[in-house]
Amino acid sequence: MKCPVCGCENPDDYKFCHDCGNPLIFNDLSNSDDFPSFDSKKLIIIGYIIAILFGWGSFILSALFGSYGFIGFIGLFFPGFMLNSKDPNIRKHAYIQLAIMIIGIIVTFLILFRH
């Protein structure tokens, strides 16, 4: 296996380059059919559903169960995952989803704790 950094040839069972020490596994994964690929449109749609359910749904849950909207913070993980994407379109939608969620959570807190 050829190192993607230094170009040194390594045996196929090596995980790291014996010359420069960089990982070889990433080079192996990029050519593998087993590596999962995501349809960006589906990922974006799922992100908006999660943003609405957790961001604005926290208001409904807090009204019904008295959870004070803390459930909304759980939904922040998915847009955070999407921010790590190399696709700029997915990152753009992740920022929008974060804004939707944060606004929903803030509105929930303002309504619940108004005195």
Describe this structure in words.
- With 115 residues, the chain is mostly helical.
- The protein has helices at residues 25-30, 40-65, 77-82, 88-112.
- It folds into 2 domains: 1-33, no CATH class; 40-112.
- It is built from 4 helices and no strands.
- Helix 2 (40-65) packs parallel to helix 4 (88-112).
- The model is unreliable at 27-36 (pLDDT under 50).
Run of helices and strands: HHHH
Low-confidence parts, pLDDT < 50 over ≥5 residues?
27-36
Give the biggest sheet. Answer: none
Strand content: under 5%
Domain count: the total is 2
Gyration radius (Cα, Å) is 21 Å
User: Count the strands?
Assistant: 0
Percent of residues in helices comes to: 40-55%
Short description:
This protein has 115 residues and is mainly α. The protein has helices spanning 25-30, 40-65, 77-82, 88-112.
